[in-house]
Amino acid sequence: MKKVSVIAIVFGIVLFTMLIPPPLNLNPRAWRVLWIAFLAVFYWSTELIPIPLTSVLIILLLVVEGILPFDKAYSYFADKVIALMLAGEVLALSLSRHGVDRYIGVKFLGFMGEKAERVVLGMMLATSTLSMWIPNTAAAAIMAPIGVGMLGLFGEERAARNLGKAMMIGIAYAATIGGLGTPVGTPPNPITISNIEKSTGVVIGFTTWMLWGIPIALILTIIAWFILIAMYKPEVEVVKGGRLTIELEARKIGLLTGRRLQALLLFLVSALLWIIDPIASQLLKDWTYIASLVVITIHILPVVGTVTWDDVSKGVDWGVLFLIAGGLALGAGFRESGLVEFLSSIAMHSLSGYSPIAIVFAISLISSLLVVAFCSITATASLAVPLGIAIARGVGLNPIIGGVAAGIASTFAFILPANTPPNAIAYSYGFFKNYEMAKAGVVLMVISVFIATLFSYFIIPIILGI
Hints:
Blueprint: H1 2-18, H2 28-46, H3 51-64, H4 70-74, H5 80-97, H6 100-109, H7 116-131, H8 136-151, H9 162-178, H10 188-200, H11 206-231, H12 242-253, H13 258-275, H14 277-280, H15 287-300, H16 309-315, H17 318-337, H18 339-351, H19 356-374, H20 377-394, H21 399-409, H22 421-427, H23 434-464
Helix pairs in contact: 1-2, 2-3, 2-17, 3-17, 5-10, 5-15, 6-7, 6-8, 6-12, 7-8, 7-9, 7-11, 8-9, 8-22, 9-11, 9-22, 10-17, 10-20, 10-21, 11-23, 13-15, 17-20, 18-20, 19-20, 19-21, 19-23, 20-21, 21-23
């Protein structure tokens, strides 16, 4: 009853506040969108109502308040990036159902030896690699128990072991960072791609994103490892029995045969279809999204496929697709109402006189701080990407630079366990305290903002030829 009361009270306050004349020079439509965004962030971060339902509510309010016409608002449920994310979900479901994701992770760890620091690095690299292709929550859920299995060899108090802190925080960070690698890795990526296309007309293909996404993911994973090892240096140099744990896990998984081999082959075919985007898009426009539909089809086809439609209907996280649709619609509301221009004018006034690279740094920093406030990387990207595009355009920078910088930084959820599901999963095992993640997270976030700035300002324009 208390929960229902809070939902109703907050909703009532928002509706009432919309009727108050807006301050400064903000137009009434932008004022209403601002409060719709507040309601979205509040419900998304507290989860007082299901996250997908919040997305439906956002779209409903945007229509009722006259911000977007009905057909445009609800078209985001069928946006091109939804096909991309659904293909990623089906691919992840196939890998998970046949244990290929765990097989890849364990085999990857087998190369890292038994030195404690290298084992932590191996866990992080394996988690990061998986997270490029499957949801970051799934990557953390797969790798965390393997990490706990290794740490269990020591049999000591969890909170007192530096190795445990480095291992479990590292898995959480790697799951988040790895998502940057591909467009299907994490929701802010397709949100960034969609906003850039709608604002500039430039289509960022699957392979094009990977050209900067994978290097950033690998660099940040290694930097996160350095930070964690420096702050929580393992008490021992060698994880005795670490290789044995990996071998036992490998035996549990079994050989790569039958349906498991078939699932791996379909994964490779799917990756190839996306990777050839630069060539194929010359023949067929929007190849990435056409390929996504092909990926979905071949995975479900009888005999050829590795999952059934029943598996997909039950196993796919449809809520994520609703979440992305709501985020895209909210971004459109920002643009259509003039709220982005208003916020960007304030930002540009504050940033006037600064160098272009300093402005890109500010865009990245603001986006990363919004993650802490919103506790939702999707909500952050929905606001930060349109804002980054508008700020960049306003100061004479290519808007793609501002949009990509904001999109990348929107994933920097490193400070609190509540910031993203991988953090919460790792925290639930009891190997570290809140402040221990925050201490490492602040350092990593600052360094990550610098990396995002450098890539966005120097590398991405070269890749895109802008």
